[in-house]
Fold this protein.
Amino acid sequence: MRNLILMATKQCSDKVLYDKLKEYFGFSSFKGNQEAVIKNLLSGRDTFVLMPTGGGKSLCYQLPAMIMDGVAIVISPLIALMKNQVDAMRAFSTDEGVAHFLNSSLNKTAINQVREDVLAGKTKLLYFAPESLTKEDNIAFLRKIKISFFAIDEAHCISEWGHDFRPEYRRIRPIINDIGNAPLIALTATATPKVQMDIQKNLGMNDATVFKSSFNRPNLYYELRPKVDAEREIIRYIKTNEGKSGIIYCLSRKKVEELAELLRANHIRAHAYHAGMDAATRAQNQDDFLMEKVDVIVATIAFGMGIDKPDVRYVIHYDIPKSLEGYYQETGRAGRDGGEGKCITFYSYKDIQKLEKFMQGKPVAEQEIGKLLLLETVSYAESSMCRRRTLLHYFGEEYTESNCGNCDNCLHPKPKIDVAKDMVLMFDVLSKVGDKFKIDYLVNVMLGKVTAMIKSYGHNKCDYFGCGEGHDAKYWGAVIRQALIQGMIDKNIENYGLISINDKGRAFMKKPHKVEITLDHNYDAEHKEEQAAASMGKGGAVADEELYSMLKDLRKKVAREHSLPPFVVFQDPSLEDMSSQYPITIEELQNIQGVGAGKAQRFGAPFISLIKTYVEEKDIIRPQDMVVKSVGGKSANKIFIIQSIDRKMDFEDIARAKDLDFEELLTEIETIVNSGTKLNISYYINEYMDEDKAEDIYEYFKEDAETDSLAEAVNELGREYTEEEIRLVRIKFICEQGN
């Protein structure tokens, strides 16, 4: 009989819960763990929720707040996030006072209105930033009211190992104790086992019921691309996905502004968003994105937390994020409705080195944490393993599928090799060095690389030191990562990053079996190979061989008419670009690589005439999405260099002013000149070069050279002429003869 009564009570409470869900939010069913989370909170128990972006975390505290007596106190890190959620709650209710926030954006009158609504019992959700919660008058006010529970949103901010650490979050537990006891719910969309432990420990909720949803987002496609001509790639991608909503993340505010301006110049509806903008502009830009007045937001990581836009179709990272948690959360803003979500990241190891530079000057402990998180990011970026599997393993979740079918590595797999023998060797070394070291230490021991730390432990004197010299660091990194994914190595949570062999690994040593890996990507090396091939006229740079051949013939004819070497008219990369872009106006020709306004005006007419006829005869549909207009304001270096040369400044001073080395400055000048701008650098050549040598080089380019190749010039002129001298005179020659 008692069981029947309990069952009837449960059915009644379930009915109430579903009725309230329908009444307040218009849903007839819960997603994933939502129902279990809500029931746990309603029963008065502390609750810890790990749920990916798009899983419906907010409902886990919004619905209980509407049902329970009193006011739910929600602690949230961003004013924009609070405003967004308060607006959403008010849309569900007939009473404006149902949700409020108290933060620094409110004046005294607004604060008094909020407090009146709370005391009158109108308010069910009251949002605070952690900084506002610490104010004594707010604490005194909260002691007067009945609190249903405390909700800590974006709880990963508590942990120094989280991707968005906020020291103020560390003070939340003592303040809650000061205000008065109530159930606690902590929620995050991203937490490694280490961060999860930190959150629970810091909030004093080790006995909380933990609800962990799968971090797998099957609809998201993950891709890493080498950071080569990234702006052009981004514009091309957006134009082929016209009308779709997207977010582009950059690390610096300056890059955000530049890229947003470039997109607008190319007729893409885009806004910038970063913390340096005034609050009103930021809010307006966010609203324009939500209301689809613009398609693209270019932002720093400040954008997107808690933004309820379900149909973001792509998230592009112009810069690699500082941690995999940041990457996961930012990519998670795509495809929240379960539809298409493309996550494309541009990667160059130079960006990692920049991030390491930014850490200098910070406390040593913070630098150590930052470097370890960066290593995880590099490992993910350069790995040829399934992206999904690597990500989920990072968050403590096993993914058993061998091919997810929705990442670049799975769709375009590299050949696999069996590493069982080398894995046994690696385990042997790991078991001997012990469990006090990180991956890079183990790799250095295997490679025989002597470091101060290795010397201090004496491992350089062991017989196994250098036993893996037959392979490089990337190879051993891939072997170790595979052992981690296979669960044969443990990573210490208390002392993050320390690794040790476990029982599964020891069993493998006794009875090895086939283990296959794919060798890691080397994006920078791949880019250099592509550049080298392109500079030699190879590598598939020519889209239309027939047109390219016709353009080369035309260049010879135009060069003869002007008594110039063909390369002075247009260089090979310019013709290659023309054979891809099919420019048919002078304006379009100016956007071709290495062609500026000067060259387009002087030599362009016969080229666009030929291309126009060719396009019409062949009935070619031109890839207009590839035409990228440059932004004048973007090329501050270019303007500075031109003005400095006009003022006859010393080249070393120009380079120093723009933090360039001399070779980089020459490259910048060559780019300017090859686009058709005329510079007079004779003053510098006359001062720093022997007159006879300068004349010999000039004569070579005028009479003998068939191409502008530096290597050919060095070979012809002899070793007494330096590369710098040849480049300087070549610049002068092109300016005087071609521009």
